[in-house]
Every structure is written in structure tokens, then in C-alpha cells.
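Help needed: design a sequence for this.
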């Protein structure tokens, strides 16, 4: 009798653990004008080691050369919520950075004779951003009019974004076509991170909870998160950024107001002639 009771208790505990794990949340920073997501309605960016497409499916994918972004170690990186109402439904600016390893860059015909600093301005000068790996920012090269960085397989990297404006900004970020917050297909309709005026945002990986992320790690294409989780590799090798401004608090508003100030606010008085 005691054995049967023990078995029932263990079974109930396992069912409870399964339910709780299904309610894990992957949250965003801005709550904005959209309704806050309930825990049971938000899917986490699961580890591809335990979920996603099967190994049999991934093995059928044709091996591609070059690198993509894999699932690195889990590290602490906490976030919270704040209010932010977008000025427009569509992003004000969209920017991208392409990447590959050295051999892949050579095959693609990337011009490596000239390079630029790791942080480059974008979005009309409101932001600067780049990829940081190892001890420094990755240099920028140019390929078909777009920025291009060269990574090394096995190394972690992070996205660094600095707000150069005088107002808060919202940025929606993607890696290999996947949203960095929920690990699913990227969309500008999703919410992103808020960066205060003059502040720097460092996104170290795909978010798996309020407190942790799985670091971005340069990997083979077949070992990428996009392939292991979704079975798709079409969009590997690209990092995207969509910028949204806040309604009623456009960057540069104070500067424009001062620039438009007049030394004589009223019409000048009329003087009599001699």
C-alpha cells in the first residue's frame, strides 16, 4: 500500500513539474500600449538540445559552409518592464550587419582592404552599434553596400547598441532572422528593448527567462539555433535592428525648438521717418 502511494506522489510531482516548465516566460522590456503578456501565453526560447526539430531532420539538411549563431552557455542577464508607446507602428529605421568566418568572407568576395571601427552610426545618427567578441569590437568591412563582420567559430559574441540621442528609444533585434527575446521568427510587430538617452545596451544572447540568456556563439550552420530549433537556415549570417521612437518624445525635439526660437517674437514697432 505504501509503495502505491509513493508511486502516485511521484507521478503527481512529475506532472506538476511538467506544467510549471511549460509556464516559463521570456519577457520584453517595454510594456507599451500593447497588453502585457500573461505567463501562459508566452513561449520561451527553449534550448535546442532538448526541444525543436529532431536530429534526424537536421541531419537531412545539406551541410553549409561558414558560420551561424549557436546556443552558448546560460548566464545572468536580468530585465524588467516599462511603458513605451511607439510614435508609429512601423520602425523609423531598419539596419543590418552581415557576418561569416574568414573563409566564408573570402568565398563571398568581401573587400577586406578597408575596414571601419566596431561601433558604427545608424538610424540617422541616433544610434551606433556593432558586435563585440573576445576582448574587443569586431571590425567592419563592406559587402554589397552592407556592413560585414568576421567571426570565429566557437567564440561567444554580444550585440552592443548605444543611444546617441536625447530621448528613449526602442530597438527590436534579430539574429539569423530570429527575435533575440523569444527565439522565434523576427517581426517588427514584436516588442524590444528600451535604451535611455546616452545609455548602452548589451544583448548577450537569446533570452530564456527574466534573469538569464543563452549566449550567442559562432557555430557551424548545422549546429545553429535556427537549424536545431526551427530546421531553417535561410537567414543565417545576419543581425537586424529596427528602431522605434516614443510618441510625443521624438529625439531632437528640444534642439529643434531652440533652433526655431526667434530673437523678436512680435512684429517690430513702427518708427517715424525724418
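Sure. Designed sequence:
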Amino acid at each position: 500500500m505504501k509503495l502505491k502511494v509513493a508511486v502516485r506522489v511521484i507521478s503527481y510531482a512529475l506532472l506538476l513539474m511538467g506544467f510549471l516548465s511549460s509556464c516559463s516566460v521570456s519577457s520584453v522590456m517595454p510594456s507599451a500600449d500593447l497588453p502585457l503578456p500573461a505567463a501562459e501565453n508566452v513561449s520561451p526560447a527553449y534550448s535546442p538540445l532538448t526541444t525543436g526539430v529532431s536530429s534526424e531532420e537536421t541531419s537531412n539538411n545539406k551541410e553549409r559552409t561558414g558560420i551561424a549563431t549557436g546556443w552558448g552557455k546560460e548566464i545572468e542577464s536580468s530585465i524588467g518592464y516599462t511603458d513605451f508607446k511607439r510614435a508609429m507602428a512601423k520602425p523609423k529605421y531598419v539596419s543590418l550587419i552581415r557576418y561569416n568566418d574568414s573563409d566564408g568572407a573570402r568565398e563571398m568576395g568581401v573587400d577586406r582592404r578597408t575596414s571601419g571601427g566596431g561601433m558604427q552610426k545608424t538610424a540617422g545618427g541616433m544610434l551606433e552599434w556593432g558586435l563585440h567578441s573576445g576582448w574587443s569590437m569586431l571590425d567592419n568591412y563592406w559587402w554589397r553596400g552592407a556592413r560585414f563582420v568576421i567571426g570565429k567559430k566557437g567564440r561567444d559574441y554580444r550585440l552592443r547598441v548605444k543611444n546617441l540621442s536625447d530621448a528613449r528609444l526602442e530597438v527590436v533585434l534579430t539574429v539569423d532572422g530570429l527575435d533575440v527575446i523569444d527565439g522565434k521568427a523576427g517581426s517588427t510587430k514584436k516588442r524590444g528593448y528600451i535604451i535611455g538617452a546616452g545609455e548602452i545596451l548589451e544583448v548577450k544572447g537569446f533570452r530564456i527567462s527574466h534573469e538569464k540568456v543563452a549566449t550567442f556563439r559562432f557555430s557551424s550552420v548545422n549546429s545553429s539555433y535556427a537549424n536545431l530549433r526551427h530546421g531553417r537556415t535561410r537567414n543565417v549570417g545576419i543581425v537586424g535592428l529596427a528602431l522605434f521612437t516614443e510618441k510625443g518624445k521624438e529625439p531632437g525635439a528640444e534642439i529643434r525648438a531652440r533652433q526655431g526660437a526667434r530673437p523678436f517674437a512680435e512684429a517690430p514697432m513702427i518708427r517715424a521717418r525724418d
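The chain has one domain: 26-252.
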